[in-house]
Records
---
Amino acid sequence: MAAGRDKSKMYASDGRPRELKVDLVAVVAAVTDNDPRALTISQGSALPAGPFEMGHRSLQAGLRDWVEQQTGQALGYIEQLYTFADRDRIPEEQARRAISISYLGLTRDEWSEGGPPRDWQSWYDYFPWEDHRAGAPSIIADAILPPLRAWTEQQGGKAREERRQRIAIGFGIDGRPWNEELVLQRYELLYEAALVEEALRDGGGARAPHIPGRPMIADHRRILATGIARLRTKIKYRPVVFELMPPVFTLLQLQRAVEALAGRLVHKQNFRRLIEQQELVEETGETMSETGGRPAKLFRFRPAVLMERSAAGTKLSVSRS
Amino acid sequence: MAAGRDKSKMYASDGRPRELKVDLVAVVAAVTDNDPRALTISQGSALPAGPFEMGHRSLQAGLRDWVEQQTGQALGYIEQLYTFADRDRIPEEQARRAISISYLGLTRDEWSEGGPPRDWQSWYDYFPWEDHRAGAPSIIADAILPPLRAWTEQQGGKAREERRQRIAIGFGIDGRPWNEELVLQRYELLYEAALVEEALRDGGGARAPHIPGRPMIADHRRILATGIARLRTKIKYRPVVFELMPPVFTLLQLQRAVEALAGRLVHKQNFRRLIEQQELVEETGETMSETGGRPAKLFRFRPAVLMERSAAGTKLSVSRS
DNA sequence: ACGGCTTATACTCATTCGAAGCATAAGGAG
DNA sequence: CTCCTTATGCTTCGAATGAGTATAAGCCGT
């Protein structure tokens, strides 16, 4: 009910009205050396971001401005992710309230010509539990599940059962399959259980020891998780990987990029079948023999399909090996 | 580049800094009498909406407050839709800039007890071209495609081809199938072609005659289109229809609700198989014989699946008849 | 030159899933 | 008691999916 709002919070202790600030935050992704990366600032502790200002022509334009200004990286494809408000726990003295409108951008990790080098950081430095390309990381069983289970025990009855269920689904235990798309759910779980630094920072009260994984300022790690989740979902039904690829590539390189993003391996033969039957690529005629085996044909993306089939998909069929 | 921003726009002509306003806008959906409806205010000319204020505990909480205050309707399930900024064409004198954070809410169309009656309006009053349950509406061929084609002709070369393609995909012509999810793309097309009232209002300059379909204030009709599109997509992979159903229902009622939302018919037998094999419902033991044929079994939703399979889906398999 | 290693690419097979249609059951109306 | 209507059960067919086997084409060291 409207009665729930508390007018007193609209003013800071000095009597000035609190500001409502709108920030634009970018998750910019690229793949280099088979590692998915995010563009960061401040030595990897924050995502490119800045306030939305009156002069910006649009949200997207404002975002592009900030990213380019802070990192020198021009953006191609971008899409909106989510709009976050501050978490509940704002210190009383803090006389402003921030809204973060987040975007996902895809780009190639090109060299900056002049200007400072760009600060690309591997996703998995922030989310070491998300890379399952070499099987489930040991830190899940060693460092994550034990404290999560302890957290479960703090509750009784239905609430406990619900936590168990969320953990089982999120981390793929009790015979459930690992679902690489649940990046955000996993992070939120760890946040709620106060296993990530951000939770202690926000919530106060020392708690369980942290688990591995680099924190970020404010809720930037949460936003990054949202971006990764979105990309992992989208890659399955839209040919967005190509935004991250060089103009010419082999099918194995393409597959490695998809695997890097998804954090899991795909069945090679089926992957190729899918790509080719959807006519997403065409041969350049050239081949490449860098990897020691039979030379691979080089391909390029067929931009025609972008228009042709607005519903094309680069699905990945997961395998074990 | 940052240089693109124009600081002069940050101040109105009277020298005061322009305000940045954040609005919460709700698309609240229900199904009554086999018609999908949206909750509106002002005789159907606007969606429930209000500013996000400091006192709101969260975006969601603020939205619930406004909807309940303006319509008396309490909300259950809600999810964020999209965040819009004003369209480019703001009159120079207008000393504020608005951001709209939109949400989709699902509810049953229950009777308001006390308080004013709620203002539910059929989706298809706003988007008459979206209801294909009785085949493609004639207004598409009669009132929409001719001016759209004329609009196409205004351009030459590649741009013209691109418009053609967008129209073909959006409206399912040239042998393409109708895709009910492209609600927003269709509306944007009509907006760009200045065939909806909102475009004239925003853009100035009288143009082609309007096509049928009620307008709304600001960009509320665009937001409604976004909500419909989201719901039509989501219904296929998540059991969200049940939020819109009474506690007990027959399978045909369920099917009719899905059809109302999707704006197209589904294959009855396959629909039932899908619902039952996914164990989304259970029999109540009762039957209902209101429709003149064999009495139908009554079912209720099994909330257990919400937890069990976080990836369950109520897919709809489309048919022609 | 040749066997062995590596990667690329072609084909096969089984299972599931999706779309569509046929058949039967069980009420009410005339 | 027959016809109409709706409910519900079952088959069929083909496409898509997941997984495995087989073959090709380079390089490398001996």
---
Amino acid sequence: MTEFELGSRSNSGYSAWRLITEELRGEIAENRLRAGDHLPTENMLAERYSVNRHTARQAIAALVEDGLVESQRGSGTFVTSEPARLHQIGLRTRLTRSLGDDGSASASSRVLSSTIEEAPEDIARRLGLPHRKAIRVETTRSTGGLHIAVGTHWFDVERLPDIATALRRTGSVTAALRACGIEDYVRTSTVVGARHATASEAELLSLRPGAIVLVTEALDGLPDGTPLQHLVTRFAAQHVRLDIEHPSAD
Amino acid sequence: MTEFELGSRSNSGYSAWRLITEELRGEIAENRLRAGDHLPTENMLAERYSVNRHTARQAIAALVEDGLVESQRGSGTFVTSEPARLHQIGLRTRLTRSLGDDGSASASSRVLSSTIEEAPEDIARRLGLPHRKAIRVETTRSTGGLHIAVGTHWFDVERLPDIATALRRTGSVTAALRACGIEDYVRTSTVVGARHATASEAELLSLRPGAIVLVTEALDGLPDGTPLQHLVTRFAAQHVRLDIEHPSAD
DNA sequence: CGAAGTTATCTATTTATCTAGACAACTTCA
DNA sequence: TGAAGTTGTCTAGATAAATAGATAACTTCG
């Protein structure tokens, strides 16, 4: 097993306890520590990572707060038996418009704002805009009281001039597109990345600053290829898995 | 927002400069800051994140060290790096082939180890193993001198008894499968998540401890659906984004 | 019961990180 | 040329994180 040392750990921008927390979280995620298992004791962790016992305790405390482990005075700390529920969200790869990217049926999305803005150059290009004037819509999605994702949608203001009012009325992008006469649309590309959440994303998703977000960047278009919507969605990585369907070519 | 930021940022386990560094890195990776672009000045960053200018400088210094930006006294700091490269994921995804589709011959994969182990229960179930005895193979993948991904492969030891020797001989999973008589296989399912790298992953990928990995968990099978390989791949998120293949709508 | 091992809590101290202000060196542009 | 704006460097102080040691409360097991 590889342990980081003081040299590489200090000055890394990550506190010692955070690194230990995430290391243990990774072991749980990889099933090397399983439900019910006894975590290394505080003294063992302190020795393994060359830190004080208090630092090891702080690392464990973060896992306790996340519900991954439970501490019992006198006996030890154990991996929680029922792992936190993960939301499996389907990434749309064909025109499953009814469910699609909105995933589980219980998900509710809300429009935070919609403004007319100058689109960034690359987004304007992907949308095929000569003028760069676009409608920008910010949305959030939550299920079961948990904030799951925030989305930034870009529409061509000339192609869909009424999308803003339709959005405010329907509260849903899909319904708003239908109100604008778009019955069918197709996802033409999706790119997935991961990074730390920005401060505003962390606030919207009820995450700590620095939490990890999965970022999907997608382009929706008419079946003939005309681009309709550029969509950037940020998911809280600790609650979400993205499920990719692989439609067989035949 | 700014005062709230300070309060919630502390005690997060991430230093202020690290959060700023990672936010800027994300903007570069997602091509919102492009090669040649002027970074916000130190004073602008300090104001935007409500930190001292020295803290903003430290954030930039980390990007300089990673070779993403270059500072020029008097004029500013500029982006020097390209956005994260794309790794394609689709029906015919092979770890060996899909990276470096720019035709660069620099992409290479390496078999680190192969052992016979008792597979974890969930993996055994997905592979359809009654006996739980499986071959576990660890691989790494790099391109352009960058370590891109590490993979953990699981095979049925009874269905593919010779895969280990074939792997050691060929060095490639695809070639080894072909040597075992598997001419064609397809991706059945892919699930994507993200978390911090463990210390061992960070070492294999030449990342700092605490860096972010994209984790894909995939099942490959014969065209008739028989499971062949369970594959967990960890990509260095700062270098890679996943490009989800969409079937052409024809 | 008693000993050993565990988590919980407290105080004090050291070390690392962040803030504050000043000035120098350099570039850009009017 | 000069003014404004930028990065580079220095000193000092304030705040947060980690260390060190001690003791209590609880569990397990011989």
---
Amino acid sequence: MLTIGQLAAFAGVTARAVRHYHQIGLLPEPARDASGYRRYGAKAAVSLIKIRTLANAGVPLSEIGQMLEADGSTFDEAIQRIDSHLRDEIERLESSRKQITQLTAGESLALPPEVTSYLDRLREIGVSERMVEAERDGWILVVARWPERIHQIMPAKFAHLDDPRLVRLYRLGSELLDSDAGDDDPRLEEAADILAGLAEQAYTPGETNPDEDAQHELPFGLLDALAVESDPRAQRLLDLMRERGWASWTRTRPQRLTEPAD
Amino acid sequence: MLTIGQLAAFAGVTARAVRHYHQIGLLPEPARDASGYRRYGAKAAVSLIKIRTLANAGVPLSEIGQMLEADGSTFDEAIQRIDSHLRDEIERLESSRKQITQLTAGESLALPPEVTSYLDRLREIGVSERMVEAERDGWILVVARWPERIHQIMPAKFAHLDDPRLVRLYRLGSELLDSDAGDDDPRLEEAADILAGLAEQAYTPGETNPDEDAQHELPFGLLDALAVESDPRAQRLLDLMRERGWASWTRTRPQRLTEPAD
DNA sequence: ATGGGGGGTTGACGCAGCGTCAAGGTCAAG
DNA sequence: CTTGACCTTGACGCTGCGTCAACCCCCCAT
């Protein structure tokens, strides 16, 4: 007769595991000897090995009991279920691995390569590191809401960098972020003028903008909030844009709040 | 300002998950509004998305905090650790899948194919189902203790089936298991005679048996116990073997207990 | 006889990452 | 005013054991 430790060693598990199987009713409690020790026979060893075989194959303990009692077809069904579950798990982990190898740099965190290229391009243009980080956080929000559309958006963004006004705008932002200029800095006005001009151009009045619905889904509110949270002076910029008839400095649609409603 | 539900929805998680991140200090608790609701800004959304990006990549929550603060090389090291851990997990599951697909029939449970073939062969010879099951459980114990050696053992076992004495022995076992014969059934004596003869042949006296140490490691005690547990009449067989000078009906070494010690 | 070391016993908490009640308070709409 | 959808804290549940704690038991050496 074996003690719990001997039984466990024979099956290659710990005594704690055996006691656990008793607790959940997977392995019947054996009789005790005079001093209260559990004493196991050979059949218990066989049962324990069967249990471990299934458990090692990835069968949850809660199902092993039924499987050991099941007949051939029921058993095979269960095997199928377990196997497809394992397949799913493996797929999940595989995709995790793919994802994680993308995360070599802290920057690519949560961003597709197009966007990180764009950010690198900004650096080449002379945009400061703080400005790039602010831009990056904004893109994280956009990507989170619109993961697929990002492929359509980025080429336009790259092309837009050919516009000297936009470059000037980024440089203004860089300067302002790195300075301790106040709300009254004239560069804020200049930035607002550029933004208004770009917005005017992007918004072709009279025509139905096909992306209008889509744009409506973009998290403009969050982007504005992000800017203000990153630098309170962004609030001034927002006010200036509102003066110029634009609802937000990231949204390219005119507001009508100051005009009478239809 | 977002409520917890809105924030969670934006990042594609549940509110409970966000609260969990607060609890473990991964995401800072935001300020509350007048009615005690948590109110989140855009930066929280960015943080949450970063957290989920790493979590989706398989990074344990407990490490995400440090990773978000880490610099490039520290970050990359962590990535390497996580990746190799993922690889291990995947391998584990892959091997589980391999194992589980082997378990198509209830019989192959915990047994390599050589052994199941042997059991099938026994059925062909006319061994009863109960006898095969008893034999199977015995092999489960042997395989558990000696998983690699089984490849060496089985060919000899197959060859041994050419010996008509062994076949007769299995048939006797089948008959006895299916009958309600008592301890005094003469077939028990016949079985003991065959066993003794086979043992005599297997044990070549005077020569040093190279497998002696190895055999010593086989779980003979358990095998004997298993037989007796399966059918109490096996005890009688053991006694008969002892009378004939053998320690156990599964062990092929003579006992010297009845002779004076050296 | 005594002491020590290596077994055994039950009971309990801990782990990861939340899901899911319970028992309320709040908010916007009809 | 009610309803339904949200928020709050607190707590247990899940998986498969690991790991104390506090105590008992057996065998061996002194």
